Amino acid sequence: MDAKHTSVEVIQREVGRWNTDIALGWETGLQGKKRIGNRLYERHPPDHFLEPQNHARYTDWLRGYEKATQYRRFELRREVHYVGENESGPVKGVYQGWGIKRGSIVSRLIDKHGCYGDVYFYYFEGTKIVRTVKCGI
User: Fold this and answer.
1) What is the DSSP letter of 53?
2) What UniProt keywords apply to this chain's record, in alphabetical order (predicted)?
3) Of 92, 98, 115, 134, which is the most buried if we count CB atoms within 10 A?
4) Residue 29 φ/ψ, nearest 5 degrees
5) What's 37's DSSP letter?
6) For the ranges 16-20, 31-35, 96-100, 128-132, which has the lowest average pLDDT?
7) First-to-last C-alpha distance (Å) of the chain
8) Are the beta carbons of 38 and 87 closer than 8 angstroms?
9) What pTM, to 2 d.p., does this model score?
10) For 86, phi and psi rounded to 5 degrees?
């Protein structure tokens, strides 16, 4: 994971405070689910956090973990929005992730929707546009 997402400032802004247990939960939450075989499982805190005398440490770990999963879901989500145009107006669509084939999207817009002109692709990470591509038809 990028160091800018695990910095003390980001954790303090999202969680409200920082300590090593919150940071450990934060880093675990940013990793997402754990794959074992073909299935995905939630990650768990270290076993010693589950002992009764470490309840406060477990609570801090859980707070960091939950806030990191929210942060990952909203701020690190990658999407591609595309916009084409036909005689009825704009034709829009959204794909999760950045692994799309622009050529097949452009072909589909021509065949199914009768689009013409340019098709614009906007690559989002969270709410920020990080790349824009214009493809002509």
Assistant:
1) G
2) Plasmid
3) 115
4) -65, -35
5) T
6) 96-100
7) 37
8) no
9) 0.70
10) -130, -170
